[in-house]
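Protein modeling request. Please complete all fields; requests missing the sequence field cannot be processed.
Requester role: graduate student
Desired output: 3D structure, token encoding
Chains: 1
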Amino acid sequence: MTASTLNYKDIPSNTGILICGHGSRNPIAIKEFELLIEKLKHNMPGIPVSYGFLEFNRPIIREALDNLRSQGVERVVALPAMLFAAAHAKNDIPSLLNSYSAKTGLLIEYGRELGINTLMIGAAGERVRETIKKNLDFPCSETLLVVVGRGSSDPDANSNVSKITRMLVEGFGFGWGETVFSGVTFPLVEPGLRYCLKLGFKRIIVFPYFLFNGLLINRVRKYIDKIEKENDEVEFLTANYLSDHPLVVKTFLERINEVLNGDNAMNCSLCKYRSALLGFESEVGHIQASHHHHVEGCLDKCKICGEISCDCFSTLEQKDIRLLDTHEHHHFTYPHSGHPLGPITLKNENES
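Delivered output (352 residues):
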């Protein structure tokens, strides 16, 4: 059963929907997230829909669940508003939901992340196509596509970004495709783009595969601008991120339907917490626990201007981004943090 055929009138009145977001210091990102929630509500008239954040913003997930219970909800379908399943979707959010359910007795059924399906590939393709239509000078076969992922300490999530890249490359017939990341893993955006230049393409389309705006989107654009200025013989084009594209909204509805229809299969075969993946064997059986208790609903004042919501981070140099880091996550140390094309490049820049 698809989102378009599900009759939401058949959903019991005591069932509610919870969308679990990460949270952001960027007010634009939060507004975009809330707009997506409004579109979900529009597609599910009469169904209680709430949302909560892991960190920085309110309502936090516990408050969102309280909200649903106050509306008479006895069963909750909870979804992570995440493109791929890494620590947040696998550990942090489930831990919070399990704790709440055990304390209150509320039935909470957890759905999948957005992941990879024809809808998400279609949304990504339309964002890239928008850029191609505005710039028709080069055929796709003479253009390099670079997809930027968030970057995670989970190789399963990172590999999914590479799959998106390949689907787009073959879908459009690009001359070549590469995948880079904004943090945690390798190659990061700047060193990755510098290596891409060696391929000799005169036009490069960079597509940030992100849901919403924020610090990381600004970081990606900063590095694109920097490298473009140093290589004026190469044309750089930046595609828009996914945002609330209609096919993204449909994917959320599809994930909700999976739970309601009892067809909610998770991918555990490549989960580093359940499978002895090469290089990550020590993380099998890691206890499921949230690492965000100390920053739930805590949007600290900016250490630069003293305001809670500001645009200071959009103009920061990389060496100053650390000023905005107000907490640490206590996950396993990423085994390749010293990779010459990875996070160590940020440390080197901070020290310069």
